[in-house]
Amino acid sequence: GQNIDQPTEMTATEGAIVQINCTYQTSGFNGLFWYQQHAGEAPTFLSYNVLDGLEEKGRFSSFLSRSKGYSYLLLKELQMKDSASYLCAVRGPYGGATNKLIFGTGTLLAVQP
Amino acid sequence: DSGVTQTPKHLITATGQRVTLRCSPRSGDLSVYWYQQSLDQGLQFLIQYYNGEERAKGNILERFSAQQFPDLHSELNLSSLELGDSALYFCASSGGTGDGETQYFGPGTRLLVL
Predict the structure, then answer these.
(1) Most-buried pick from A71, B11, B72, B75 (CB within 10 A)?
(2) Quick one: pLDDT at residue A72?
(3) CB of B58 within 8 Å of any CB in chain A?
(4) Per-residue pLDDT averaged across A55-74, rounded?
(5) Average model confidence (pLDDT) across chain B
(6) Distance from chain centroid for Cα A101
(7) pLDDT at position B11, please?
(8) Which residues of B touch A104 (CB under 8 A)?
């Protein structure tokens, strides 16, 4: 089966650091993506992890532990514009010749002044 | 701007009707994916096409169908519409189906069934 869990909502303060966790149980794994989605808009790609460890990209970092079925997205120096939903998505096994993504329900982050 | 275009942006129709949503992938991308996002659910994968061929199916209803044309644009057809079909429908594209292929999403079509 496929199960991806994220907290529903989080609140953080402008300038601070926030960590959004994602745990997954999927039949096959071939990579984990994080997307940002503002209300009513398209998801936009933030990061991709396929090997264990930390990937850093400016103010955003993403970590993966395949043995624990766990990932987190770290946002530093929070800005008001970071208020959005953050979606964790797992890519299925490559052998099936598909690149479909299974998404979690998303974490709605509110950044406060 | 992801380079993926979708039309129309908004669609209002009645139960029982049929609609067609259109998607043009980024230049050079061969794979197109369709997702549905309703208020109480996350993004749900519907179907994937790669270079004109169906590649993967998700929880797509039998009332829904899709195709990808030789110019690589794709259409999602929704028929016998029900109130519960009201949702945002996103199209995404990627170069192929290889490891690490990032999917880029279009702006979506907001469908309201009355």
Answers:
(1) A71
(2) 98
(3) yes
(4) 95
(5) 92
(6) 12
(7) 97
(8) 42
Q: How many CB atoms lie within 10 A of CB B100?
A: 13
Q: Nearest to residue A19, comparing CAs of A49, A59, A53?
A: A59
Taking 3-state DSSP, the helix, strand and coil percentages for chain B, each rounded to the nearest 5, stand at 5, 50, 45
Q: What average pLDDT is seen over chain A? A: 91
- Site from B7, B32, B94, B99 to mutate, A interface, most A CB atoms within 10 angstroms: B99
Q: In 3D, which of A61, A73, A68, A58 has the Cα closest to residue A104? A: A73
Both tokens assigned to B58: 């998700």
Closest-CA distance of chain A to residue B101, Å? 7
Q: Which DSSP helix (H) or strand (E) runs through B85?
A: none
Return the pLDDT at A44: 96
Interface of A with B in 69-98 (CB under 8 A): 87, 89, 94, 96-98
